[in-house]
Amino acid sequence: MFRAALAEFVEYGYDLASTNRIVEQAGISKGVLFKYFSNKEGLFRYVCERGAQEMERAFDLAPEELPDDFFEALKVLAWREIEFSQGEPEIYRFFQRIAENMAHPVHQGVIATIASSTQGLYLSIMSRLNVSQLRPDVPYETILHYFKWVMEGAKKHLFAVEPPPRDVTLLRAYQERAMEQFDVYFELVKHGIYRR
């Protein structure tokens, strides 16, 4: 049922999503659906919570998986996000839809749920990064926001120029090309654009 509902919400958004199409895709009766969810909003919340759990699993890193160098660690996290967007494209697009229309009343209702379920993991990872190399006069939160904005722009550009291949045998080569491009952005963030 999760996959059928996820696909429906990704394709049509909350307002145009049809529980009739969801039950048809899931191969269940409408009675079964509403036995577990009182309405479409309840089903939407379930998809959000389940999707957030899948994201948490993708970013649940063991201590040895996170390099000591701040930028190398951020590269690992950025790469995890790229891998997640390729491995679970529908979940990734689902959360993108929510982010693109945060004013929607149902979206507003689930944003707190998503934030609370991922905030703990995020804080746990961020607290493990080595910040001794960073400028002490710039707040840590500002650095993280700046880095996130750069990465968001880099990903949008990359996916527009060369979308991820559907053939998994081509994925590794694609990832290596993507990482080469990201390394350029990482270096710019790390050292700036002025001559050294």
TrEMBL record:
Entry keyword set: DNA-binding
Q: Name the SUPFAM superfamilies on file.
A: Homeodomain-like (SSF46689), Tetracyclin repressor-like, C-terminal domain (SSF48498)
Q: Which PROSITE patterns match?
A: HTH_TETR_1, HTH_TETR_2
User: Where does the record place the HTH tetR-type domain?
Assistant: 1-55
Superkingdom field: Bacteria
Q: Which residues bind DNA?
A: 18-37
Q: Name one Pfam family in it.
A: TetR_N
According to UniProt, the name of this protein is TetR/AcrR family transcriptional regulator
- Organism of origin: Tumebacillus lacus
